[in-house]
Amino acid sequence: MSTDSSPAFPGHADTAEHTSLHPHGTLPNDRIARVDVPALLEEGRTRCAAGLRAAVARLASPMDVAAAYHFGWLDVQGRPSGRTGGKALRPALALLSAEVTGAGDGPGLPGAVAVELLHNFSLVHDDLMDGDEQRRHRDTVWKRHGPETAILVGDGLLALAMEVILEVDSVRAAHRAARTLTTASRALIDGQSRDLSYERREQVTLEECLHMAGEKTGALLACSASIGAVLSGTDDRTGQALWDYGYQLGLAFQAVDDLLGIWGDPRVTGKQQWGDLRRRKKSLPVVAAAESGSTAGQRLRELLADDAGHGSHAELTDEELAMRAALVEEAGGRTWTLQEAWRRRNAAIRALDSVSMPDAVRQRFVAIPDFVVARVG
Amino acid sequence: MSTDSSPAFPGHADTAEHTSLHPHGTLPNDRIARVDVPALLEEGRTRCAAGLRAAVARLASPMDVAAAYHFGWLDVQGRPSGRTGGKALRPALALLSAEVTGAGDGPGLPGAVAVELLHNFSLVHDDLMDGDEQRRHRDTVWKRHGPETAILVGDGLLALAMEVILEVDSVRAAHRAARTLTTASRALIDGQSRDLSYERREQVTLEECLHMAGEKTGALLACSASIGAVLSGTDDRTGQALWDYGYQLGLAFQAVDDLLGIWGDPRVTGKQQWGDLRRRKKSLPVVAAAESGSTAGQRLRELLADDAGHGSHAELTDEELAMRAALVEEAGGRTWTLQEAWRRRNAAIRALDSVSMPDAVRQRFVAIPDFVVARVG
């Protein structure tokens, strides 16, 4: 789906507006295009790899081995693996945010390590709670090392994240960064709690759904995008603006992820077609469709009520899945979610307007939300 | 078992020695006897109750309800319960340690709340990992609210502990207290990890056993006994001495707990007779006996090897349990553990020698280890 010429996406109009209104705001498109975002993400992951491994090695046995397996550093037989762990937004954002002061990204390193630890805490525990047996085409930690070890590994990673941040030399910076990290960790846990309780409910409102996405995805990217700046000793206002940027980026990311969870090409995403519908996930497109007030939305509500009413966990057939996907689309759930991704992308970029930073740093900040939404249009 | 007249317990000799050698050290027995430790513990729990409830209420649903159930504030039907939660060393120690500076115990309150949150994080997760269905004569959280909620509640309590501490006004005090708390949380998690891995092994050395007890019990009481002082702005040396005091107290407590786990009177402890033997726990008396080199110790080793070798989890009969208890005693495991409790009690009191504090505060610090060891002799 291309959005280049569509007036339905306020993103483009907004961007143009802000480029002209704010001399220190967003950059012209020709400069944005030059940022190699995949390389930026890869570099972030590489830069924090040593610190991450050193942190994980502090865990007692068998947590250390199970965590190394989770990160892909050990294969299923426990042998060193050549896996790099792929690309990730979080460490790249943490390092980039340290650069807003104009110094290097060095102070952001413990922040990058801490957000990775925090993120992986939530993956390990969520996989167990959700009963997911596979992650990145390998058995999940609980499946490979047992539920007890998975609980311990998650606990260990959460505590380690805090430990790494509190070891930062500057007491003031360490304290502020630890508060940022704690806010994100509490939000992650609250979000997962709501997610599980919503799964048992027939109806979830779009507001609840967005709030939960803010907790599960927004807060961690908000933390990532601001923790480096906090560690570099920037002022509270800048820290807050970067938090807001990351939060909106997280919501854009979630909207995109939810679109891919239904309509993503399995050859690109590596996930099953209609995967989120298969798992009866109340994702943004589904909830937006159900709330649309349209006939298709009403039909979808009835199907969701049937699911809940009968406590049915029977597998849905491909015909049923195709029908549900069509209903979501007909009720406007797909369009709304794509627009939402653009709205959040715009809000993220707008949040940068009040922050003064070197041009090259701003350029990279702006390129990231564009990269995120480009995955769907 | 009475130790009043036994020369086998170095505790008594040491105490006398230190009372005379250190004018600011331990107090004469007649003053120690006057501290009402049960009242002190009850008061600690009462003092932090409001703060604890306010912290737990921050958790998203259904964690808030499940956590309130765990703390005993709600009954199984979710109705408010009159349970006070009983007595506990941790909050009392945190409040007492705030008083070493001569000010009130006020600055210790967030510390008392935080150590309670941390302790209960470990209870909720450990119950799930250990498959324990009952705690304080009620279903455990995972049994009542499901494993997913138990994982979340534990995660939430761990994150809350950090949040509460980082909210303390003084940045320097909050930072030091957060480091203290993180050290304890990492030790708790490492200790539980070792505990689970030791359960799968045939032999555990006494050194490993003590190290693990230091992590699981020592570190949390060390944190409790020092976090109040840290929050009161005391110097590092005092903080370290109080940490050492709490660590040794924790090991004394564990030795006593392990004795009661085999020979405790079920009418007093509320636990099954020979409970730790029933659960084939490699507790201090068992490991000390197995390492004794005696004939009884050798026989015990063979039984433990049989347990491990046959992967047997068949229930042991009362005859078998009585025989094992007799072997542990004959091999000196009971005596060694009682002596160890006294050695640790003495080391705890010695650690106070270097700390200057008001007499009334010292009196209470000294009375606590005495109260702990008095449970067994």
UniProtKB/TrEMBL annotation, chains A, B:
InterPro entries: Isoprenoid_synthase_dom_sf, Polyprenyl_synt, Polyprenyl_synt_CS
Family membership: Belongs to the FPP/GGPP synthase family.
GO BP annotations, alphabetical order: isoprenoid biosynthetic process
Gene3D superfamilies according to UniProt: Farnesyl Diphosphate Synthase (1.10.600.10)
Example GO molecular function: metal ion binding
Keywords annotated in UniProt: Magnesium, Metal-binding, Transferase
Entries under PROSITE patterns matching the protein: POLYPRENYL_SYNTHASE_1 (PS00723)
Name under which the protein is recorded: Geranylgeranyl diphosphate synthase type I
A Pfam family hit: polyprenyl_synt
Region (Disordered), start-end ranges: 1-29
